[in-house]
Amino acid sequence: MAGSSALQMAIADPDDMMLYSVRPDACPQNFLQPYVSLFSYCLGYLVIAIGAYGQLPLLFKILRYQSGKSYISIANITTLFVTTTNFVVYAVNRNLPINTWGEFLLQMALYVIIMNLMMLYHGRQRYAVFFMLAYFPLMVVLLWPLVPDVVVSSLMIGNFVILGWRKINWLYKCYKEEGRTYFSTKTSLTLMNVSCVSRLLTSLVDTGDSLLIYFYLQECILNTVLTVQCIHYHRKRQRPSLDRRSSRSSG
């Protein structure tokens, strides 16, 4: 720790300690680094907990009704399954700390379970078996240390394109529908933005991985635009009721 190292330096040479007390600029530059690292470490696991909180209710809903056809988009689940798989492969091959990407591991496992449940509940047991027989060998190959670096980087770049296009599609639909069907609660908007900003911070502090940082920067920008858009349409819908209230009070 920085405090203990400073104490050892003082014991070794008391003049150095006097120099630090007289000239604060002479203190080591990384004095706050342990505290920043600890904050980023705890923040990373908080984001993992938020991710579990946001995804597990969907699984419980499917298990309860033994169907998800009416409220789950197969294309959306498939997209999330592919992108989370890409993320896990990239993180493992780059030896990134688990606190910087752990929610993607949980989400990948969750989407695998959901896809199998969807097949089972709709009488497609053979497809579920074939899916698992193909998926696990593919993951073993992708997680193999000898996989070329260009393949691993391509998976992450693919996430840029897929999730960026998905978020832009959200923006367009939110514009067309004036925000009626997107993020009806403030909690979902808040969790989405907090998680993204937190992940950008943990990427900067704990990994320094350029692709990861650019990815979360892109997500933060798109999330901010979407949030502003939703707030704008929410206030727009509330304006007529506020006008009616003001007219009644004035009358």
Keywords:
mainly alpha; disordered N terminus; 251 residues
Question: Would you give an account of this structure?
Answer:
- InterPro entries: MannP-dilichol_defect-1.
- The chain has one domain.
- It is 80% helix and 0% strand.
- It is built from 9 helices and no strands.
- The chain is globular, with a radius of gyration of 24 Å.
- The termini are far apart.
Task: Reconstruct the topology from this structure.
Blueprint: H1 2-12, H2 14-22, H3 33-65, H4 74-93, H5 102-121, H6 125-142, H7 149-176, H8 186-207, H9 210-250
Helix pairs in contact: 1-2, 3-5, 3-8, 4-5, 4-7, 5-6, 7-9, 8-9
- The secondary-structure element order is HHHHHHHHH
Beta content comes to under 5%
Radius of gyration: 24 Å
Domain count: 1
Low-confidence runs: 1-27
Q: Oligomer, anyone? A: single chain
Question: What best-fitting shape do the alpha-carbon axes yield?
Answer: globular
On the 0 to 100 scale, the average pLDDT is 80
Strand tally is 0
Number of helices: 9
Q: Helices and strands: which structural class?
A: mainly alpha
- Could you tell me how far the N terminus lies from the C terminus, measured between alpha carbons in angstroms? 68 Å
Helix content: over 70%
Largest sheet: none
